[in-house]
Amino acid sequence: MGEPAGLTQPYRLEYVYKRGLGPVLNAFFNGLKRAQLLGVRGGENEIFCPPSEYHPESAESLTEMVELTGAGEIVHAFWIAQPLAHHPSKTPFAFALIRLDQCSSHFLHIVDTGGDESLACAGLRVRPRWADERIGSIRDLESFVPESVDQSCVVMPEGDELLERLNIPVSLEYQVRAGRVQSRFLHQLSERKIIGRRSPASQKVLLPPRGACPQSGELCAAEVEVSDSGTVVAFTVVRIDFPGQQLKPPYACASVLLDGADQPILHLLKGLPGSLRIGMRVVAVWRDEALASMQAIDYFCALDEADAAADTYAEHL
Amino acid sequence: MRPVALVGFSHSELQPESPLDEVELTQQVCSSLRDKLGLKQQDIDLVVSGSCDFLSGRPFVFISALDGLGAVPPIDESHVEMDGAFALYEAWVRLQSGEIDCALVYAFGRSSQANLNRLLGLQSDPHWGAPLGLDEQAIAGLQASAAGLLGAGLERLPEADGAAAVLLAAGDRARQLCPRPAWIRAIDHRIDRSELGQRNLGQLPALERSAEAVSLSSHQVEYAELHAVFTHQRQMLKTTLGLGDELPTNQGKTSAFDAFMVSGLMHLGEAAEAVMQGRVKRSLGHASAGPALQQNLLCVFGDSP
Protein backbone atom coordinates (compact mmCIF):
# COMPACT_ATOMS: atom_id res chain seq x y z
CA MET A 1 0.00 0.00 0.00
CA GLY A 2 1.29 3.46 -0.85
CA GLU A 3 2.41 5.79 1.90
CA PRO A 4 0.68 9.17 1.49
CA ALA A 5 2.48 12.28 2.62
CA GLY A 6 1.72 13.03 6.27
CA LEU A 7 -1.09 15.52 6.68
CA THR A 8 -0.29 18.76 8.40
CA GLN A 9 -2.38 21.73 9.43
CA PRO A 10 -1.74 24.99 11.26
CA TYR A 11 -3.55 25.36 14.53
CA ARG A 12 -3.73 28.15 17.10
CA LEU A 13 -4.43 27.53 20.76
CA GLU A 14 -5.72 30.64 22.51
CA TYR A 15 -7.13 31.15 25.94
CA VAL A 16 -7.31 33.74 28.66
CA TYR A 17 -5.56 32.55 31.78
CA LYS A 18 -7.60 33.93 34.68
CA ARG A 19 -5.83 34.23 37.99
CA GLY A 20 -7.53 35.20 41.22
CA LEU A 21 -5.32 37.50 43.31
CA GLY A 22 -4.73 37.26 47.04
CA PRO A 23 -3.94 40.34 49.14
CA VAL A 24 -0.22 40.50 48.31
CA LEU A 25 -0.50 40.23 44.53
CA ASN A 26 -3.55 42.47 44.62
CA ALA A 27 -1.52 45.22 46.29
CA PHE A 28 1.31 44.73 43.76
CA PHE A 29 -0.89 44.97 40.67
CA ASN A 30 -2.93 47.88 42.01
CA GLY A 31 0.43 49.53 42.67
CA LEU A 32 1.34 49.08 39.01
CA LYS A 33 -1.95 50.74 38.08
CA ARG A 34 -0.85 53.75 40.14
CA ALA A 35 2.60 53.67 38.47
CA GLN A 36 4.23 52.42 41.62
CA LEU A 37 6.35 49.38 42.42
CA LEU A 38 5.67 47.57 45.69
CA GLY A 39 7.71 44.85 47.31
CA VAL A 40 7.00 42.65 50.29
CA ARG A 41 9.16 42.51 53.41
CA GLY A 42 10.72 39.10 53.90
CA GLY A 43 12.95 39.74 56.90
CA GLU A 44 14.84 42.56 58.52
CA ASN A 45 16.99 43.37 55.48
CA GLU A 46 14.99 41.52 52.92
CA ILE A 47 12.47 42.89 50.42
CA PHE A 48 11.19 40.82 47.50
CA CYS A 49 9.86 42.37 44.32
CA PRO A 50 7.84 40.95 42.64
CA PRO A 51 6.40 40.09 46.05
CA SER A 52 6.26 36.52 47.33
CA GLU A 53 3.28 35.48 49.42
CA TYR A 54 5.53 33.27 51.48
CA HIS A 55 9.18 33.27 52.39
CA PRO A 56 11.09 31.10 49.91
CA GLU A 57 13.10 29.48 52.70
CA SER A 58 11.07 29.56 55.91
CA ALA A 59 7.67 29.36 54.11
CA GLU A 60 6.41 32.02 56.56
CA SER A 61 3.50 34.03 55.26
CA LEU A 62 4.54 37.53 54.10
CA THR A 63 2.14 40.48 54.19
CA GLU A 64 3.97 43.76 54.81
CA MET A 65 4.08 45.74 51.57
CA VAL A 66 6.85 48.27 51.03
CA GLU A 67 6.82 51.14 48.52
CA LEU A 68 9.89 51.25 46.29
CA THR A 69 11.25 54.18 44.31
CA GLY A 70 11.30 52.02 41.21
CA ALA A 71 14.91 52.93 40.46
CA GLY A 72 17.56 50.27 40.30
CA GLU A 73 20.55 48.89 38.49
CA ILE A 74 21.03 46.22 35.84
CA VAL A 75 22.67 43.02 37.18
CA HIS A 76 22.46 40.82 34.08
CA ALA A 77 21.16 41.61 30.62
CA PHE A 78 20.50 39.71 27.41
CA TRP A 79 20.18 41.80 24.26
CA ILE A 80 17.39 41.07 21.78
CA ALA A 81 18.61 42.48 18.48
CA GLN A 82 15.69 41.16 16.47
CA PRO A 83 12.47 41.15 18.49
CA LEU A 84 10.01 38.33 17.74
CA ALA A 85 6.23 38.64 17.54
CA HIS A 86 5.71 37.59 21.17
CA HIS A 87 8.21 40.11 22.54
CA PRO A 88 6.89 43.25 24.23
CA SER A 89 8.91 45.66 22.07
CA LYS A 90 9.16 45.99 18.31
CA THR A 91 12.57 47.64 18.53
CA PRO A 92 15.78 46.12 19.94
CA PHE A 93 15.81 45.89 23.73
CA ALA A 94 17.30 43.84 26.57
CA PHE A 95 15.74 41.37 28.95
CA ALA A 96 17.35 42.19 32.26
CA LEU A 97 17.56 41.21 35.88
CA ILE A 98 17.44 44.49 37.79
CA ARG A 99 18.35 45.05 41.43
CA LEU A 100 15.73 47.56 42.55
CA ASP A 101 16.98 49.89 45.29
CA GLN A 102 16.20 48.42 48.77
CA CYS A 103 15.45 44.98 47.27
CA SER A 104 17.18 41.69 47.94
CA SER A 105 15.73 39.84 44.93
CA HIS A 106 16.13 40.69 41.25
CA PHE A 107 13.32 42.08 39.13
CA LEU A 108 13.06 40.61 35.64
CA HIS A 109 11.87 43.07 33.03
CA ILE A 110 12.96 44.74 29.82
CA VAL A 111 15.26 47.70 29.30
CA ASP A 112 14.95 50.16 26.43
CA THR A 113 18.22 51.94 25.73
CA GLY A 114 17.05 53.43 22.45
CA GLY A 115 18.71 50.60 20.53
CA ASP A 116 22.15 51.02 22.11
CA GLU A 117 23.35 47.55 23.06
CA SER A 118 26.52 48.83 24.71
CA LEU A 119 24.46 50.66 27.36
CA ALA A 120 22.42 47.59 28.34
CA CYS A 121 24.87 45.95 30.68
CA ALA A 122 25.56 45.40 34.37
CA GLY A 123 25.78 48.54 36.43
CA LEU A 124 23.48 50.77 34.34
CA ARG A 125 21.12 52.78 36.59
CA VAL A 126 17.55 52.51 35.35
CA ARG A 127 14.04 53.55 36.29
CA PRO A 128 10.58 52.60 35.04
CA ARG A 129 8.80 54.12 32.08
CA TRP A 130 5.10 53.68 32.67
CA ALA A 131 2.36 53.21 30.10
CA ASP A 132 -0.15 56.03 29.87
CA GLU A 133 -3.05 53.63 30.23
CA ARG A 134 -2.60 51.12 33.00
CA ILE A 135 -4.84 48.16 33.73
CA GLY A 136 -3.01 46.32 36.51
CA SER A 137 -0.57 44.26 34.44
CA ILE A 138 3.19 43.76 34.43
CA ARG A 139 3.07 45.54 31.05
CA ASP A 140 1.80 48.72 32.78
CA LEU A 141 5.51 49.12 33.31
CA GLU A 142 6.44 49.52 29.65
CA SER A 143 10.14 49.15 30.17
CA PHE A 144 13.02 50.37 32.25
CA VAL A 145 15.07 53.20 30.76
CA PRO A 146 18.43 54.72 31.70
CA GLU A 147 17.91 56.95 34.73
CA SER A 148 19.13 59.96 32.79
CA VAL A 149 16.21 59.85 30.34
CA ASP A 150 13.49 62.43 31.03
CA GLN A 151 10.06 61.02 31.58
CA SER A 152 6.70 61.67 33.09
CA CYS A 153 3.58 59.65 33.55
CA VAL A 154 -0.04 60.10 34.43
CA VAL A 155 -0.54 58.90 37.98
CA MET A 156 -3.99 57.51 38.61
CA PRO A 157 -5.72 58.53 41.85
CA GLU A 158 -5.62 56.24 44.87
CA GLY A 159 -8.73 54.25 45.64
CA ASP A 160 -9.23 53.35 42.01
CA GLU A 161 -11.35 50.28 41.37
CA LEU A 162 -9.50 47.30 42.84
CA LEU A 163 -8.46 44.41 40.66
CA GLU A 164 -9.61 41.02 41.78
CA ARG A 165 -8.12 38.91 39.11
CA LEU A 166 -5.72 39.07 36.21
CA ASN A 167 -6.74 38.13 32.71
CA ILE A 168 -3.63 36.92 30.92
CA PRO A 169 -4.13 36.14 27.22
CA VAL A 170 -2.08 33.23 25.86
CA SER A 171 -1.75 32.45 22.17
CA LEU A 172 0.28 29.54 20.81
CA GLU A 173 0.86 28.52 17.21
CA TYR A 174 1.10 24.88 16.16
CA GLN A 175 1.71 22.87 13.05
CA VAL A 176 -0.22 19.70 13.78
CA ARG A 177 0.95 16.57 11.95
CA ALA A 178 -1.37 13.61 11.86
CA GLY A 179 1.05 10.68 11.85
CA ARG A 180 1.09 7.77 9.42
CA VAL A 181 -2.10 5.87 10.15
CA GLN A 182 -4.33 8.88 10.72
CA SER A 183 -2.97 10.68 7.65
CA ARG A 184 -3.86 7.68 5.53
CA PHE A 185 -7.35 7.38 7.05
CA LEU A 186 -8.05 11.07 6.41
CA HIS A 187 -6.76 10.82 2.80
CA GLN A 188 -9.15 7.94 2.25
CA LEU A 189 -12.06 9.99 3.59
CA SER A 190 -11.30 12.60 0.92
CA GLU A 191 -11.93 9.76 -1.59
CA ARG A 192 -15.23 8.96 0.16
CA LYS A 193 -13.85 5.74 1.57
CA ILE A 194 -14.14 4.86 5.24
CA ILE A 195 -11.35 2.42 6.03
CA GLY A 196 -10.77 0.86 9.43
CA ARG A 197 -8.04 -1.53 10.51
CA ARG A 198 -8.32 -5.03 11.89
CA SER A 199 -6.74 -5.72 15.26
CA PRO A 200 -4.50 -8.79 15.05
CA ALA A 201 -5.36 -9.59 18.68
CA SER A 202 -9.15 -9.37 18.67
CA GLN A 203 -9.89 -9.46 14.90
CA LYS A 204 -12.14 -6.44 15.46
CA VAL A 205 -12.28 -3.62 12.93
CA LEU A 206 -11.19 -0.43 14.66
CA LEU A 207 -12.52 2.89 13.45
CA PRO A 208 -11.04 5.43 13.23
CA PRO A 209 -7.85 3.40 12.97
CA ARG A 210 -5.06 4.32 15.35
CA GLY A 211 -1.33 3.72 15.37
CA ALA A 212 -1.86 0.61 17.45
CA CYS A 213 -4.53 -1.69 18.84
CA PRO A 214 -5.39 -0.34 22.30
CA GLN A 215 -6.00 -3.88 23.52
CA SER A 216 -2.68 -5.41 22.56
CA GLY A 217 -0.44 -2.49 21.63
CA GLU A 218 0.26 -4.20 18.29
CA LEU A 219 0.37 -2.43 14.95
CA CYS A 220 -2.79 -2.90 12.90
CA ALA A 221 -1.74 -3.24 9.27
CA ALA A 222 -4.81 -4.89 7.66
CA GLU A 223 -7.20 -2.32 6.21
CA VAL A 224 -10.93 -3.04 5.99
CA GLU A 225 -13.34 -0.79 4.11
CA VAL A 226 -16.61 -0.30 5.96
CA SER A 227 -19.99 0.98 4.77
CA ASP A 228 -21.09 4.60 5.04
CA SER A 229 -24.39 3.47 6.54
CA GLY A 230 -24.88 2.14 10.02
CA THR A 231 -26.88 1.97 13.23
CA VAL A 232 -27.36 4.58 15.95
CA VAL A 233 -26.18 3.14 19.26
CA ALA A 234 -26.39 6.33 21.35
CA PHE A 235 -27.39 9.95 20.81
CA THR A 236 -28.06 13.25 22.50
CA VAL A 237 -30.13 16.13 21.10
CA VAL A 238 -28.47 19.55 20.87
CA ARG A 239 -30.93 22.42 21.29
CA ILE A 240 -28.66 25.35 22.09
CA ASP A 241 -26.47 27.51 19.85
CA PHE A 242 -22.73 27.73 20.33
CA PRO A 243 -19.83 29.19 18.31
CA GLY A 244 -18.49 26.96 15.57
CA GLN A 245 -21.66 24.90 15.34
CA GLN A 246 -21.96 22.91 12.09
CA LEU A 247 -25.73 22.39 11.99
CA LYS A 248 -28.69 24.51 13.07
CA PRO A 249 -30.29 23.18 16.28
CA PRO A 250 -32.12 21.02 16.99
CA TYR A 251 -29.94 18.18 15.80
CA ALA A 252 -28.27 15.22 17.46
CA CYS A 253 -24.77 14.04 18.24
CA ALA A 254 -24.83 10.33 17.64
CA SER A 255 -22.63 7.35 18.10
CA VAL A 256 -22.94 5.42 14.83
CA LEU A 257 -21.81 1.82 14.36
CA LEU A 258 -21.03 1.64 10.64
CA ASP A 259 -21.77 -1.69 8.94
CA GLY A 260 -18.54 -3.69 8.96
CA ALA A 261 -16.94 -1.79 11.88
CA ASP A 262 -16.61 -2.95 15.49
CA GLN A 263 -16.25 0.49 16.97
CA PRO A 264 -18.83 3.30 16.69
CA ILE A 265 -17.80 6.77 15.50
CA LEU A 266 -19.20 10.04 16.76
CA HIS A 267 -20.91 12.28 14.23
CA LEU A 268 -23.86 14.63 13.68
CA LEU A 269 -27.37 13.52 12.87
CA LYS A 270 -29.65 15.95 11.10
CA GLY A 271 -33.40 16.34 11.45
CA LEU A 272 -36.38 14.94 13.35
CA PRO A 273 -35.14 14.76 16.92
CA GLY A 274 -38.56 13.45 17.97
CA SER A 275 -38.15 10.21 16.03
CA LEU A 276 -34.58 9.42 17.07
CA ARG A 277 -34.02 6.06 18.68
CA ILE A 278 -31.29 3.56 19.33
CA GLY A 279 -31.20 0.98 16.56
CA MET A 280 -32.34 3.35 13.82
CA ARG A 281 -30.51 3.06 10.50
CA VAL A 282 -28.63 6.08 9.14
CA VAL A 283 -26.44 6.95 6.16
CA ALA A 284 -23.63 9.48 5.63
CA VAL A 285 -24.33 12.59 3.58
CA TRP A 286 -21.02 13.53 1.98
CA ARG A 287 -19.95 17.07 1.20
CA ASP A 288 -19.39 18.00 -2.42
CA GLU A 289 -15.80 19.03 -1.83
CA ALA A 290 -13.18 16.37 -1.10
CA LEU A 291 -11.92 16.98 2.45
CA ALA A 292 -9.24 14.97 4.22
CA SER A 293 -11.24 15.31 7.42
CA MET A 294 -14.18 13.82 9.33
CA GLN A 295 -16.01 16.83 7.89
CA ALA A 296 -15.88 15.09 4.50
CA ILE A 297 -19.11 13.67 5.90
CA ASP A 298 -21.46 16.63 6.41
CA TYR A 299 -23.82 14.71 8.68
CA PHE A 300 -25.82 11.49 8.88
CA CYS A 301 -29.53 11.23 8.10
CA ALA A 302 -32.18 8.54 8.59
CA LEU A 303 -32.47 5.63 6.14
CA ASP A 304 -35.92 4.47 5.13
CA GLU A 305 -35.52 0.93 6.41
CA ALA A 306 -36.37 -1.21 9.44
CA ASP A 307 -34.39 -0.76 12.65
CA ALA A 308 -31.41 -3.04 13.18
CA ALA A 309 -31.89 -6.17 15.28
CA ALA A 310 -30.81 -5.52 18.87
CA ASP A 311 -28.23 -8.31 18.90
CA THR A 312 -26.26 -6.64 16.07
CA TYR A 313 -25.25 -3.75 18.33
CA ALA A 314 -25.85 -5.08 21.86
CA GLU A 315 -22.18 -4.94 22.86
CA HIS A 316 -21.99 -1.23 22.04
CA LEU A 317 -24.79 -0.11 24.37
CA MET B 1 17.24 0.21 50.02
CA ARG B 2 15.82 -2.42 47.73
CA PRO B 3 18.25 -3.11 44.85
CA VAL B 4 16.72 -1.81 41.63
CA ALA B 5 18.32 -1.80 38.18
CA LEU B 6 17.78 -0.48 34.72
CA VAL B 7 17.72 -3.61 32.58
CA GLY B 8 16.72 -2.42 29.11
CA PHE B 9 16.73 0.72 26.98
CA SER B 10 15.14 1.43 23.64
CA HIS B 11 14.69 4.63 21.66
CA SER B 12 13.36 5.83 18.36
CA GLU B 13 15.32 7.63 15.70
CA LEU B 14 15.68 11.32 16.57
CA GLN B 15 14.45 13.41 13.67
CA PRO B 16 13.61 17.09 13.17
CA GLU B 17 10.10 16.05 12.07
CA SER B 18 9.09 12.49 12.82
CA PRO B 19 6.41 11.06 10.51
CA LEU B 20 5.04 9.15 13.52
CA ASP B 21 2.44 10.49 15.90
CA GLU B 22 2.36 10.02 19.67
CA VAL B 23 0.71 6.59 19.54
CA GLU B 24 3.05 5.34 16.83
CA LEU B 25 6.17 6.55 18.66
CA THR B 26 5.00 4.95 21.90
CA GLN B 27 4.16 1.73 20.10
CA GLN B 28 7.57 1.60 18.46
CA VAL B 29 9.74 2.08 21.54
CA CYS B 30 7.63 0.08 24.00
CA SER B 31 7.21 -2.93 21.72
CA SER B 32 10.89 -2.96 20.77
CA LEU B 33 11.90 -2.86 24.45
CA ARG B 34 9.48 -5.63 25.42
CA ASP B 35 10.65 -7.77 22.49
CA LYS B 36 14.28 -7.24 23.46
CA LEU B 37 13.54 -8.45 27.00
CA GLY B 38 11.08 -11.17 25.97
CA LEU B 39 8.23 -9.57 27.93
CA LYS B 40 4.53 -9.13 27.28
CA GLN B 41 2.68 -6.08 28.55
CA GLN B 42 0.91 -8.26 31.13
CA ASP B 43 4.31 -9.19 32.63
CA ILE B 44 4.93 -5.54 33.56
CA ASP B 45 3.66 -4.35 36.93
CA LEU B 46 3.63 -0.59 36.37
CA VAL B 47 3.92 1.90 33.53
CA VAL B 48 4.98 5.53 34.07
CA SER B 49 5.26 8.02 31.23
CA GLY B 50 6.62 11.53 30.79
CA SER B 51 5.35 13.93 28.13
CA CYS B 52 3.92 17.41 27.66
CA ASP B 53 0.45 17.97 26.21
CA PHE B 54 1.41 21.56 25.33
CA LEU B 55 3.68 20.18 22.59
CA SER B 56 0.63 19.02 20.67
CA GLY B 57 -1.72 21.73 21.93
CA ARG B 58 -4.34 19.15 22.90
CA PRO B 59 -5.40 17.86 26.31
CA PHE B 60 -4.77 14.25 27.37
CA VAL B 61 -2.36 13.33 24.57
CA PHE B 62 -0.64 11.16 27.18
CA ILE B 63 -3.87 9.18 27.63
CA SER B 64 -4.35 8.54 23.93
CA ALA B 65 -0.69 7.51 23.63
CA LEU B 66 -1.53 4.54 25.86
CA ASP B 67 -3.07 2.92 22.80
CA GLY B 68 0.51 2.22 21.76
CA LEU B 69 1.04 0.07 24.84
CA GLY B 70 -1.96 -2.17 24.92
CA ALA B 71 -3.63 -0.69 27.99
CA VAL B 72 -6.89 -2.69 27.78
CA PRO B 73 -7.78 -4.42 30.08
CA PRO B 74 -6.63 -1.57 32.34
CA ILE B 75 -3.01 -1.51 33.48
CA ASP B 76 -1.42 0.20 36.49
CA GLU B 77 -0.30 3.43 34.90
CA SER B 78 0.90 6.89 35.89
CA HIS B 79 2.16 10.01 34.15
CA VAL B 80 4.32 13.04 34.88
CA GLU B 81 4.13 16.22 32.81
CA MET B 82 7.93 16.20 32.76
CA ASP B 83 10.84 14.57 31.04
CA GLY B 84 10.69 10.77 31.24
CA ALA B 85 13.68 10.83 33.65
CA PHE B 86 11.33 12.09 36.33
CA ALA B 87 8.86 9.35 35.46
CA LEU B 88 11.75 6.94 36.08
CA TYR B 89 12.11 8.43 39.57
CA GLU B 90 8.43 7.74 40.30
CA ALA B 91 8.85 4.17 39.11
CA TRP B 92 11.95 3.77 41.32
CA VAL B 93 9.96 4.99 44.35
CA ARG B 94 7.17 2.49 43.62
CA LEU B 95 9.76 -0.28 43.29
CA GLN B 96 11.22 0.76 46.65
CA SER B 97 7.78 0.35 48.20
CA GLY B 98 8.09 -3.35 47.43
CA GLU B 99 4.64 -3.67 45.90
CA ILE B 100 5.95 -4.18 42.35
CA ASP B 101 8.95 -5.93 40.80
CA CYS B 102 9.28 -4.25 37.41
CA ALA B 103 8.20 -1.04 35.72
CA LEU B 104 8.20 0.30 32.17
CA VAL B 105 9.07 3.99 31.83
CA TYR B 106 8.63 5.80 28.55
CA ALA B 107 8.62 9.31 27.15
CA PHE B 108 7.69 10.90 23.86
CA GLY B 109 7.96 14.39 22.43
CA ARG B 110 7.09 16.02 19.15
CA SER B 111 8.36 19.56 19.60
CA SER B 112 8.28 20.05 15.82
CA GLN B 113 4.56 20.72 16.17
CA ALA B 114 5.04 23.66 18.53
CA ASN B 115 7.17 26.77 18.87
CA LEU B 116 9.34 25.45 21.69
CA ASN B 117 11.18 28.73 22.30
CA ARG B 118 7.87 30.49 22.93
CA LEU B 119 6.27 27.58 24.76
CA LEU B 120 9.05 27.34 27.33
CA GLY B 121 8.45 30.97 28.29
CA LEU B 122 5.13 29.83 29.71
CA GLN B 123 7.04 27.92 32.38
CA SER B 124 7.87 31.26 33.97
CA ASP B 125 5.58 33.02 36.42
CA PRO B 126 2.14 33.61 34.89
CA HIS B 127 1.73 37.06 36.51
CA TRP B 128 4.99 38.75 35.56
CA GLY B 129 7.07 36.32 33.49
CA ALA B 130 4.95 34.95 30.67
CA PRO B 131 3.14 38.26 29.90
CA LEU B 132 6.56 39.86 29.31
CA GLY B 133 7.13 37.58 26.34
CA LEU B 134 9.93 35.73 28.09
CA ASP B 135 11.13 32.75 26.07
CA GLU B 136 13.70 29.99 26.32
CA GLN B 137 16.40 32.06 24.58
CA ALA B 138 15.92 35.04 26.90
CA ILE B 139 16.05 32.90 30.04
CA ALA B 140 19.08 31.00 28.74
CA GLY B 141 20.77 34.27 27.78
CA LEU B 142 20.30 35.70 31.27
CA GLN B 143 21.65 32.50 32.82
CA ALA B 144 24.68 32.45 30.51
CA SER B 145 25.31 36.07 31.42
CA ALA B 146 25.00 35.32 35.15
CA ALA B 147 27.43 32.40 34.78
CA GLY B 148 29.89 34.53 32.84
CA LEU B 149 29.51 32.18 29.86
CA LEU B 150 27.59 34.32 27.39
CA GLY B 151 30.75 35.01 25.37
CA ALA B 152 29.94 34.99 21.69
CA GLY B 153 26.29 34.11 22.26
CA LEU B 154 24.09 31.12 22.83
CA GLU B 155 24.68 27.71 21.31
CA ARG B 156 21.75 25.31 21.36
CA LEU B 157 21.29 21.69 20.29
CA PRO B 158 18.90 21.18 17.38
CA GLU B 159 15.37 20.10 18.31
CA ALA B 160 14.17 16.61 17.46
CA ASP B 161 11.07 14.46 17.79
CA GLY B 162 11.38 11.06 19.37
CA ALA B 163 10.56 8.59 22.09
CA ALA B 164 12.41 6.34 24.51
CA ALA B 165 11.61 3.56 26.95
CA VAL B 166 13.47 1.81 29.74
CA LEU B 167 12.64 -1.07 32.05
CA LEU B 168 13.43 -1.03 35.76
CA ALA B 169 13.39 -4.22 37.79
CA ALA B 170 14.18 -5.16 41.38
CA GLY B 171 16.48 -7.84 42.77
CA ASP B 172 16.22 -11.29 41.21
CA ARG B 173 13.77 -10.07 38.59
CA ALA B 174 16.52 -7.76 37.30
CA ARG B 175 19.04 -10.63 37.22
CA GLN B 176 16.59 -12.80 35.25
CA LEU B 177 16.02 -10.11 32.66
CA CYS B 178 19.55 -8.89 32.07
CA PRO B 179 22.99 -10.54 32.34
CA ARG B 180 24.55 -7.29 33.55
CA PRO B 181 21.91 -5.00 35.09
CA ALA B 182 22.78 -1.34 35.63
CA TRP B 183 22.04 -1.12 39.35
CA ILE B 184 20.82 2.21 40.64
CA ARG B 185 23.36 2.91 43.39
CA ALA B 186 21.92 6.32 44.22
CA ILE B 187 19.27 8.63 42.82
CA ASP B 188 18.15 12.09 43.85
CA HIS B 189 16.31 15.04 42.36
CA ARG B 190 15.77 18.56 43.63
CA ILE B 191 14.40 21.87 42.51
CA ASP B 192 15.65 25.44 42.80
CA ARG B 193 13.36 28.38 43.59
CA SER B 194 10.68 29.01 41.01
CA GLU B 195 11.13 32.79 40.96
CA LEU B 196 13.94 33.55 38.51
CA GLY B 197 14.74 36.83 40.29
CA GLN B 198 15.22 35.03 43.59
CA ARG B 199 17.86 32.70 42.16
CA ASN B 200 21.49 33.39 41.51
CA LEU B 201 21.18 32.07 37.96
CA GLY B 202 24.92 31.50 37.74
CA GLN B 203 24.72 28.76 40.37
CA LEU B 204 22.78 25.52 40.77
CA PRO B 205 22.38 25.01 44.54
CA ALA B 206 19.77 22.25 44.23
CA LEU B 207 22.11 20.26 41.99
CA GLU B 208 24.95 20.76 44.47
CA ARG B 209 22.77 19.28 47.19
CA SER B 210 21.79 16.37 44.97
CA ALA B 211 25.47 15.66 44.30
CA GLU B 212 25.99 15.49 48.08
CA ALA B 213 22.89 13.36 48.54
CA VAL B 214 24.15 10.73 46.08
CA SER B 215 27.72 11.06 47.46
CA LEU B 216 28.85 11.66 43.91
CA SER B 217 32.55 12.03 44.72
CA SER B 218 32.65 8.61 46.43
CA HIS B 219 31.46 6.64 43.38
CA GLN B 220 34.41 7.19 41.06
CA VAL B 221 32.21 7.31 37.99
CA GLU B 222 34.02 6.50 34.76
CA TYR B 223 31.43 7.95 32.43
CA ALA B 224 28.77 10.66 32.57
CA GLU B 225 25.72 11.60 30.52
CA LEU B 226 24.64 15.20 31.16
CA HIS B 227 21.38 16.69 29.96
CA ALA B 228 21.81 20.27 28.81
CA VAL B 229 20.29 21.96 25.80
CA PHE B 230 22.75 24.86 25.71
CA THR B 231 26.54 24.61 25.66
CA HIS B 232 26.91 26.97 28.62
CA GLN B 233 24.53 24.78 30.64
CA ARG B 234 26.72 21.74 30.07
CA GLN B 235 29.69 23.73 31.33
CA MET B 236 27.71 24.81 34.41
CA LEU B 237 26.77 21.21 35.13
CA LYS B 238 30.37 20.01 34.89
CA THR B 239 31.57 22.79 37.17
CA THR B 240 28.83 22.25 39.73
CA LEU B 241 29.34 18.48 39.77
CA GLY B 242 33.12 18.82 39.81
CA LEU B 243 33.55 16.66 36.69
CA GLY B 244 36.91 17.13 35.01
CA ASP B 245 37.44 17.36 31.26
CA GLU B 246 39.22 13.98 31.33
CA LEU B 247 35.97 12.21 32.26
CA PRO B 248 34.31 10.78 29.13
CA THR B 249 30.96 12.55 28.81
CA ASN B 250 27.99 12.40 26.45
CA GLN B 251 29.41 9.94 23.95
CA GLY B 252 25.98 8.41 23.41
CA LYS B 253 24.30 8.93 20.08
CA THR B 254 21.47 10.88 21.66
CA SER B 255 23.56 13.86 22.71
CA ALA B 256 23.48 15.58 19.34
CA PHE B 257 19.79 16.49 19.69
CA ASP B 258 17.34 17.97 22.13
CA ALA B 259 14.26 15.74 22.15
CA PHE B 260 12.10 17.69 24.57
CA MET B 261 10.57 15.44 27.28
CA VAL B 262 12.70 12.51 26.07
CA SER B 263 16.37 13.53 26.23
CA GLY B 264 16.66 13.28 30.03
CA LEU B 265 15.43 9.70 30.00
CA MET B 266 17.74 8.94 27.08
CA HIS B 267 20.76 10.27 28.97
CA LEU B 268 19.88 7.94 31.86
CA GLY B 269 19.44 5.11 29.38
CA GLU B 270 22.81 5.80 27.74
CA ALA B 271 24.57 5.98 31.12
CA ALA B 272 23.00 2.67 32.15
CA GLU B 273 23.88 1.08 28.82
CA ALA B 274 27.57 1.85 29.44
CA VAL B 275 27.30 -0.42 32.51
CA MET B 276 25.04 -3.05 30.89
CA GLN B 277 27.51 -3.42 28.00
CA GLY B 278 30.40 -3.79 30.43
CA ARG B 279 32.21 -0.67 29.20
CA VAL B 280 32.36 0.84 32.72
CA LYS B 281 31.68 -0.18 36.30
CA ARG B 282 30.13 3.11 37.38
CA SER B 283 28.35 5.81 35.40
CA LEU B 284 26.43 8.97 36.11
CA GLY B 285 23.17 9.90 34.41
CA HIS B 286 21.72 13.39 34.71
CA ALA B 287 18.46 14.96 33.60
CA SER B 288 17.19 18.50 33.87
CA ALA B 289 13.91 20.34 33.46
CA GLY B 290 12.37 23.74 34.00
CA PRO B 291 13.67 27.22 33.20
CA ALA B 292 17.43 27.78 33.58
CA LEU B 293 18.21 24.24 34.83
CA GLN B 294 15.78 24.68 37.70
CA GLN B 295 15.24 20.96 38.24
CA ASN B 296 17.97 18.35 38.20
CA LEU B 297 18.10 14.61 38.71
CA LEU B 298 21.21 12.54 39.34
CA CYS B 299 21.37 8.79 39.05
CA VAL B 300 24.51 6.71 39.69
CA PHE B 301 24.57 3.31 37.99
CA GLY B 302 26.87 0.48 39.00
CA ASP B 303 27.64 -3.10 37.98
CA SER B 304 26.68 -4.37 41.44
CA PRO B 305 23.75 -3.45 43.71
Number of DSSP-assigned strands of chain A: 18
Low-confidence stretches of chain A: none
Strand content of chain A: 35-45%
When the domains of chain B are counted, the total is 2
Give the CATH H-level superfamily of the largest domain in chain B.
Thiolase/Chalcone synthase
Helix/strand-derived category of chain B reads alpha/beta
| Biggest sheet descriptor of chain A | 5 strands, antiparallel
Low-confidence stretches of chain B: none
Beta-strand proportion of chain B: 15-25%
CATH topology of the largest domain in chain B: Peroxisomal Thiolase, Chain A, domain 1
Number of helices of chain A: 2
* CATH-scheme architecture of the largest domain in chain B: 3-Layer(aba) Sandwich
Structural domain tally of chain A = 3
What's the shape of chain B?
A: globular
List keywords for this structure.
heterodimer; A: mainly beta; OB fold (Dihydrolipoamide Acetyltransferase, E2P); 5-stranded antiparallel β-sheet; 18 strands; 7% helix; B: 305 residues; Peroxisomal Thiolase, Chain A, domain 1; 9-stranded mixed β-sheet
